[in-house]
Amino acid sequence: MNINQLVYFVTVVKYNNITKAAKELYISQPAISLAIKDLEKEFGLTLFKRKNNVLTLTQHGKYLYDLSMPLIQEYNNVNERMNDYINKHSTLNLGIPPMLGTFLFPPIFNVFANENPGFQFKIKEYGSFANKKAVLDGEIDIAFTVTNECEVGDELEYIKIGETSLIFAVNKNNPLASKKVISANDIKNTPLILMKEDSLQYQIITSLFKEQNITPNILLTSNQFYIIKELLQSSDNNCGAFIFKQLIKDGENIIGIQFEKELKLDVLICYKKDAKLLSTTKRFIEFIKNNIKL
User: Which of 96, 167, 192, 251 is most buried, taking the most CB atoms under 10 A from its CB?
Assistant: First the structure.
């Protein structure tokens, strides 16, 4: 005897009918019939009288029903309390590209954490490529990624949450700051600050230069966006960087210039298709889908 057999049994009692019980439980009728037969075989008793597709309890069945109901109620109570405990003590391992996280994560954290007290995030700041690998390897549960192509895969589930684009950023005193549109040739001698090699940004920008047979003047690569921003804020150098358009803010010393080829990107979340997700993780995914629009 197991708890599922008892659940099937009391649901049949509820409807006096196996077909209706199967519909409520979302299982097949044969599965319920087998569970009832196994119980009758185990105890050597007949639990139901069967007449014209209507089932009524025997005296033995009534006794088992009276014993089963408190057990099932307690079982449901344990389930409910454990789910509540998990929700309040859950940790989500989340991967997010550093530059994307700068403007996207704070509002997510503020609202979701307030609605789910006790919930914890463990953040891994990886580039988009490394994020996807970390999800597949089981190191993180969910990842934010950016892409310039349609993401389809057998192992990862993707949900698009918005769009962004890369623009070229310089200090407002940089000679290039007056330009409305810029090309790779315009900035071939400009010291560039790029994200690390595992980022999509690095791959896109170096590919653009390669297509035009230009070697970019890469000053440094860093996944620390605050370093990139500080260097752009300084008028002591003429460096430039490709950053997301959302990071250009009024009142700062940084000017955004449209690149000649618009560098549009989709912003996605991804998770492993066959992963067993906690209820809070599922709720986080629903929160992102319903509340985050770029």
Answer: 96
**Total residue count of the chain as it appears in this document:** 294
Q: Which two tokens stand for residue 282?
A: 């599922």
Q: Mind listing the pLDDT tens digit for each residue in 114-161? A: 887 777 888 998 888 889 999 999 899 999 998 887 666 678 899 998
Residue range 217-272, pLDDT digits in tens: 999 999 888 888 888 887 677 899 999 998 888 778 899 999 988 899 999 999 99
- Does 119 lie in the same domain as 74? no
Q: Which of 149, 173, 128, 169 is nearest to 259 (CA)?
A: 169
The CATH number that applies at residue 38 is 1.10.10.10
Same domain? 21 vs 80: yes
User: What is d(CA 37, CA 69) in angstroms, rounded to the nearest whole number?
Assistant: 19
273 closest CA partner among 159, 162, 161: 159
Q: What is the pTM of this model?
A: 0.67
Please give the Cα distance from 271 to 22 (Å, whole number).
32
Q: Which domain holds residue 149?
A: 91-162+266-291
